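Operator note (shift B, R.M.): manual run for ABC transporter ATP-binding protein requested after the automated queue skipped it. Running by hand, logging everything below so the morning shift can see what happened. Input copied straight from the record, untouched. If output looks odd, do not overwrite the archive copy; leave it for review.
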Amino acid sequence: MSLLALRNLTKTFGGLVAVNNVTFDVAEGSIVGLIGPNGAGKTTVFNLITGNYKPDSGDIFFDGRTIKGLPTHRIVQQGIARTFQTIRLFQNMSVIENVLAGCHCRMQSGMLSAMLRTPAQRAEEQRALLRATRELEFVGLADEHANLAKNLSYGNQRLLEIARALATDPRFIILDEPAGGMNDQETAALIYTIRAIRDRGITVLLIEHDMSLVMKVCEKLVVLEYGALLAEGVPAAIKDDPRVIEAYLGVDTDD
Ligand SMILES: Nc1ncnc2c1ncn2[C@@H]1O[C@H](COP(=O)(O)OP(=O)(O)OP(=O)(O)O)[C@@H](O)[C@H]1O
Ligand SMILES: [Mg+2]
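Run finished. Output pasted below as returned.
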């Protein structure tokens, strides 16, 4: 059964068709990679799923129900979390505060009880702190909790974004180039972390240019080119697909 289903999704910017009639599924509990050359429309697909953009046509189903047109915060409440291709952290806030910002997306207390600091609100804050600490431990950043986000290495900032996304308690996480800017050692650790996320029962969709990472970690790859779906299948088949090789290398495989 698929947790996420995209159906004939199209998004244009002026005359440019950034996403062109794209249909694919992400099975619950799987790790799926969305790949393709620069400008292929990958991030735009993510922005459509998360409600940052509205599709021109087509539909998006999450757990069998349409989420098309919902505002971003409602989509987070449904259990979809994301990280960004261009890191978006509160750079001058501490590492733990950045993760708490994720927890707060899901908290019940209203503004009034927060101002009055009711016992229920204090208990909720305690739970959030515990959760944020656990997520930092999960991504290996517990020792950095008091550090400012801006002082973390690029790779650790990416892990912090993952921790913040996990703190929203998602069923589904989408990662936009999580290995971007990471060295080989950090990338190897990231592979472990992505698998551990899935082992927690969270379904993963990721965009990544690092082919060795997607080949190792993904059960299925979806390839976009010029906004359209070029190929879809298991990594071993995609790697040898002449259309995919041509899209990446620009060589004419028909010769
Ligand atoms: N907000 C926007 N306004 C206008 N054009 C946009 C907008 N967002 C994306 N585009 C265009 O849509 C196309 C697809 O962009 P997108 O960012 O989805 O590609 P991508 O596959 O994520 O590429 P990359 O691998 O470089 O991140 C590009 O031509 C891009 O310039
Ligand atoms: Mg992109």
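Quick read of the result: The longest strand covers residues 2-13. The chain has ten helices and ten strands.
Leaving this for review. - R.M.
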